[in-house]
Structure formats: C-alpha cells, structure tokens
Amino acid sequence: MKNKSLQFCSETIHPGESLTLALPLPKIFSCAPFYMPIKIIHGKQPGPTLLLIGAMYGNEMNGTEIIHRLLNLPALSRMKGTLIAVPVMNVHGLINRSRFLPDGTDMNRHFPGCLNGTNSERLTNIFVTEILSRADYCINLQTGPLNHYNLPMVQFYGNDEASLQLAQIFNTPIIMNETAEPGSLQHVALEQNKYMLNYIAGEAMRFDAQAARIGMHGIVNIMRHLQMLPPKKNPSNNKPPKLADSVCWISACASGTHRVKGKLGQTVKKDELLSVIKDPFGGGDIIPVHSPENGMIVVKNHTPFIYEGDRLFQLAVFSEAMEVPAEISSPALDEAI
Questions:
Q1: How many whole angstroms separate alpha carbon 314 and alpha carbon 167?
Q2: How many domains does the structure of the chain reveal?
Q3: If DSSP states are collapsed to H, E and C, what string results for 65-97?
Q4: Angle ∠(217,222,225) on CA atoms, nearest 5
Q5: Whether residue 286 is found in the same domain as residue 165
Q6: Predicted confidence pLDDT, tens digits, the chain (337 residues)
Q7: How many Cα atoms within 13 Å fall on the side-chain side of residue 164?
Q8: Exposure pattern of 26-46 as b/e (b: 16+ CB <10 Å)?
C-alpha cells in the first residue's frame, strides 16, 4: 500500500520524500526572525509518525547529535511511516548557551501554551499545534544539567503495559516510571493519547559519544518495534533494563571541596561512603557523605567545589536486590539494520 501525501506548514510532502523546514517562531525585541529547524522523512509506505526532540533545554546537545547521526542512516530510505525530527527545539537557549528561554523560564512549564500569551506560551503553542499534534509517538532527548553526569536511562509516562514495553525496548540500563507534571510536554502528550519517552544521558554543554550511541541504538530499536524499519536479522539476547521503584537525591550538608568516591552505575548499600567534603583552606573537619538507601548511582555531580544544599548524587532505588556492573558499556549499533 502506498503512503499518502503529507501537508505540513503549507508544504506538501509526497511519499518517499524528505524535506527540511524552518518553523517561524515569535520574534524577540531586535525583530530578528527566529526559526525552529524541522526535518521530515515521509516513507513510501504507511506507518506511525515518530517525533524526535533535541535541545528542549538549549545547553543540552547530545540529543542534537543523536538526531544528526540517525538522519544519516541509509536504512531510512526504506522507512515506513513518517519521522519528524527537531534537532534544536529551544533555539533561543542554544544561541545563549542557556537552559532557559529569553524570559528566564523553563520551556517545559508552559505547555500547551497560548496563541496570544507570553513569548514562551506562544512558542510552545506553535510546537503543540504544528508538530506534536501530528505524532503518534514522541521521544524527547535530554542530558543531565551542567556538571551533573547522567547514566543513560529512559523515563516513561503512564501505567499502561505498552508504555513500559516501549521503555524496555529502547534498552538503557535503567528505566523509570515518571509522573507527567501539568504544564509539561509529557502531560500534553498523555492528554492527546500519545506515547512519550524521555531519554536522558550525559551532561549539558558536552557531547558524549557513548550517550549518542546508546540513544541512536534505542531509537532504532523503537522504530523496528513499530515496524518503521526492517527487523534485525540476528536479534541479541540482552538482559532487560532494570525498572526503578523510586529515585533519591543526596544533597551536600556543608560547603567545600567535593571528592567523589562512588562511580556512576555502581550499586551501593545503605550507609556506604559516596564522597567526602573538605574545607578548601585546610581547616575544619572532613565530612563524609553516605548513601541513605540501597540503590544505584545514576547521577553524579563532578563539580570540585560545592555549596551546602547542592545535589551531589541521585540514586535509583529498587525493591529487590540487583547486580549491575559498575561500568556499563553501550551496545554496538548494527549499521546494516
């Protein structure tokens, strides 16, 4: 069966075509025009529509790199359905090397937006109306914040079996069931009955080759599952990801230099030593930081100087004892697909 032509932002995309568009965004005070880049690949045969989002936070660059790598895969020429890729969602933030929008707010607090609202609300309204509304599935590609390295993980939303299955198929070491907060893109996606995943790996303002490989491999896994791409000839028997029951942040109880001892991906026991805080001027006591729970280190703050209250680690907590290697390597991407 042949696919139908697609109307997108006043453009017609025929089956088997790909198109690069620039979605107009609200202007800033200098009246300079702003555009959101969009890449659309419309398969010759019908299938689902998958939306990929990079750089919702303008200083998180791994998602942009993942999308660029994915778009160069030769197998996309045989793809069924439609792929909508937004390499940079927060163009303002990218230009300013900032997580936030020009008004200093978090984009993921303004969905679904408003046609006549603030600059942030108009931007998110354009995105929901012109892009998200066309998708059946959505994958948001993120990193940890500045100086916080995130173990590759997938967050899924909703308690249905299909969402859990998608998270497992993406195949990161850890998956988590998260609550979609009102005002977030995830909340709007659920309201529109769309499946939504968040892939988080690495840290802001850094390209990470391992995070990019795992992310691209995960998207290919999803596209195979949705029958957008041909199945893998020799399926691997990887262990299923571990589903975390909850997460636990560990914050600094004092200011000073921070010497990290725990490794990312390491399983730790309650009261195990994770790091020490020292007075940078050589006085005062050495303050140990212990794990409050049994779990796995999934986020690590590697800033050498920290303030009291800074977040140092995030633990994934599990109901059952588990064994996970301290260093988790990325799966090899099957370039042939």
A1: 20
A2: 2
A3: HHHHHHHCCHHHHHCEEEEEEECCCCHHHHHHC
A4: 125
A5: no
A6: 889 999 988 889 999 999 999 998 887 777 778 899 999 999 999 999 999 999 999 999 999 999 999 999 999 999 999 999 999 999 999 999 999 998 889 999 999 999 999 889 999 999 999 999 999 999 999 999 999 999 999 999 988 999 999 999 999 999 999 999 999 999 999 999 999 999 999 999 999 999 999 999 999 999 999 999 999 887 777 778 999 999 999 999 999 999 998 899 999 999 999 999 999 988 878 999 999 999 999 999 999 999 999 999 999 999 765 544 444 444 434 444 4
A7: 8
A8: eeeeeeeebebbbbbbbbeee
Name, in order, each residue with C-beta under 8 angstroms of 49's C-beta and a sequence gap of 6 or more.
81, 82, 83, 84, 134, 135, 136, 137
SS3 142: strand
In a domain, 142, yes or no: yes
Nearest-angstrom CA–CA distance, 213 and 157: 24
Contact yes or no for 154/240 (Cβ under 8 A): no
Judgement on whether residues 61 and 98 belong to the same structural domain of the protein:
yes
The answer to whether 196 and 154 are in contact (CB under 8 A) is: no
* Residue numbers of the domain that contains 252: 245-317
Pair 157, 47 in one domain: yes
Q: What is the CATH number of the domain that holds 286?
A: 2.40.50.100
The total of other beta-carbon atoms located within 10 Å of residue 88's CB is: 22
